[in-house]
biotin--[biotin carboxyl-carrier protein] ligase (Candidatus Thermoflexus japonica), 267 residues
Amino acid sequence: MGWDPGEVLQMAERIPWIRDLHLYEEVGSTNDIARDLGEMGAPEGVVVLADAQRAGRGRAGRSWWTPPGMALAVSILVRPRRPPEDWPQLTMIAGLAAVESIEAVGCPAGLKWPNDIMIPPDRSRTTPASAWRKAGGILVESVPPAFAVVGIGVNVNTPLEAAPPELAEILGSIRETVGHAVPRLMVLESLLRAFARLYIEWDRGASMLERWAARLIMLGQPVRIHAAGGVWEGVAESVSAEGGLWLRLPDGRREYFLAGDVSLRWS
């Protein structure tokens, strides 16, 4: 079932920070539409929401599956007052907001560096981090110093049995974890409220680093990092305010990675 325009409009009116909301039945990418609006001078607080995406994407152009009526596909236009070197923390804000919105409907949630939204296969909080599944992702596209688009995708009621074969082993959805369907509008409103609150706090000078680090399920865990220069194995030790990851290698040395075209997997 698609979004009810009246309910979505009422939801947006309950969040004063939202300046305008553009609702679509299906788009190529909500990020592309939000970027076009930004280039046309749209104000901060514009939200683009779609029931389905044909060409949703993550980092490095990787595809993201958004079937109709089942997931969140939302992009938010921001015009930060902070310098562009601080903008990597927009990913942190989005991740924290996503975790808060998922937990609000009774589903445990966490984050995997650099931009994955993770949930366990069931409600147990004792499930090993390596068994958690990807329930969503974040894609921030910046046009400094003018604006940035924060794209967030979350599998709310997505039927995993219908997932493309290449995604079936890694995807999770809130419905699968909690055992019943969840109102998408409830998750969306919680997400946008949390994002607005955290963004305002950050834009006034606060750091999101400690809160973000506390939600990263791979810190302290053995991981493997695939980057352009090769493959590194070690323990995910800590993260920086720029969103980078410090990896402790078996010989005691440390390597530093920025997000870019890097992927992290469990060892």
User: Anything to note?
Assistant: The helical segments are 5-13, 30-39, 89-103, 165-168, 174-178, 184-203, 209-214. The longest strand covers residues 133-143. The radius of gyration is 18 Å. The mean pLDDT is 93.
